[in-house]
Amino acid sequence: MHNDIEKILLSEQEIEAICKKIGSQITADYENKKPVLVGLLKGCIPFMSDLAKHINTHVEFAYMSVSSYHGGISSSGDVKIKLDLDISIKDRDVLIVEDIVDTGSTLSTITKMLKSRDAKSVKVVTLLDKPAGRVVEFYPDYIGKTIPKEFVVGYGLDYDEFYRNLPYVGVLKPSVYTK
Ligand code: 5GP
Ligand code: MG
Ligand code: MG
């Protein structure tokens, strides 16, 4: 599996430093609050668990699964909910945890939707941001690292459902796509 990686964009050490840094920012920003971390499955899993270890306040875990259909060359941004939250977020401080923001359609839709459920606040933390891919205007509140417009895998991010278990984020060798 590691042989399929051309280059590493985010090492395990960098990921650890990001989780510590953002974790302490969130700890300060949510002092005396009990935020709900809403993870977007499945990509959020490694990042959410590592990040949460560095958040020193009471947090609740909740998950949603959404899919976005970017039809052909025009990003339609049609976002569908495959699995909804199992809790009410009315009057709660919600912090959405995402692996990567690309076009911005997923998160602009989901933040609007969660705000419309009368959450007290809705913010977004993403491990990676690809601002060059934006189609919809969207600014995450916390960003681990800004990367160029490249397709990345690992640490939650998949190619055809594989590579999520890599402990780092990297770029696949072109030969993998043509297999
Ligand atoms: P957006 O709605 O911002 O375009 O899409 C966000 C979703 O697209 C991410 O949650 C992720 O599932 C997928 N995605 C965007 N860029 C990449 C990438 O470079 N690698 C992988 N594996 N998924 C990506
Ligand atoms: Mg995702
Ligand atoms: Mg995917």
UniProtKB/TrEMBL annotation:
Keyword Phosphoprotein in annotation: no
GO biological process, any: IMP salvage
Pathway(s) this gene product operates in, as recorded in its UniProt entry: Purine metabolism; IMP biosynthesis via salvage pathway; IMP from hypoxanthine: step 1/1; Purine metabolism; GMP biosynthesis via salvage pathway; GMP from guanine: step 1/1
Keyword presence, Glycoprotein: no
EC number(s) stated in the UniProt entry for this protein: 2.4.2.8
Residue span, Phosphoribosyltransferase domain: 9-159
Protein name (Swiss-Prot/TrEMBL): Hypoxanthine phosphoribosyltransferase
Gene: hpt
